[in-house]
Amino acid sequence: MFHKFQSTSSLLIRSNIKMLKCNASSLDGKMMNKVMGFSRKTKKVWYKPNVTTNPTFEELMKQTTKNNAGRQTNKRVAILNKLLMKNLTDLMATGENSEKLIGYGLEISKVCIAGDYKSVKVYWLAGKSEDDSKLDELLHMLSGPLRHELSVLRIMGEVPRIQFIKDRTYANVAAVDRLLNKADFGEDFVPTCNTLLNNHPTIFTNIDPEIKKKIKELEDSENLTEESNEEVIIPEMKMDVMGLDHSAIMTRLNMAIQKSKAPHRQPNAVHNVIKNTVPEQTEETQYLSFTDFVKKRKIQEAKSLGRRRSRLIEREMYDKDISFQYEEEEDDNIDEYPFKIDN
């Protein structure tokens, strides 16, 4: 009996599973298939698509910063640093806001642009001002106007933010100089200049007095010879070395050069002469052609006047003939058809 029950239960389960598979089109069937593990669909793996579009400026900047840039970017950064240094100093010296910076002794030591081109660090120091807090605030206020003036100059596409940073190394040196100027070294102190100090090596050994005397004599003799050499007049250099008279050769060469530079031997001068003569000939020919044209014009006008006069005379003669013929015809008609007048 137990075996029969197991067989019947297994058949029922299989039939139910088949029914679920048949009804997989419905939502419930899909959910049961997922729970029971009958879904044959494999899990899809997502892969990053290969984008063929051009990368943006920010992505390029990130790539260059990750790869520690290259030679081209390093050159570009160095060139931009020089350009920004030059233009910033010019604007701060002669720009619209230059009057506000007078009296502080402001100096710019270095300009560094960031690798991502988003900020510019400008290192400065002030030699005259003791309290740099006011100058720091003033520079912070002027960073915006200076950025605008740089953008007008079109040095680069987008001018980054300007950050003014105090240069600590030069500031410390300037502070030490100020303290040394204020320090009191006592009444017996004699200030010396470092450039006037003798840096020649000295020998700290005991020398015999005789040797010292000889050394002094040699130094005195050297000083005397130097003074005497200064007074000696140096003779003129000889020009007949190796038996050749160089002065005569040079005079001949100079004469030949002067002859070659004569105006009649220069091709440009000849061209100028030709250019000057050609216009004179053309002017003469133009004058003659103009006179001929005037004569021909007068002849044509005289001919035209004669033709007009002849035409007028012919016309008058023709009119007279016509009028005479017309009068004769009228007289004939009157004779042929006389009128009777009744009283």
UniProtKB/TrEMBL annotation:
SUPFAM superfamilies assigned: Ribosome-binding factor A, RbfA
TM helices/strands, residue ranges: none
Domain of life: Eukaryota
GO biological process: rRNA processing
Name of the protein in its database record: Putative ribosome-binding factor A, mitochondrial
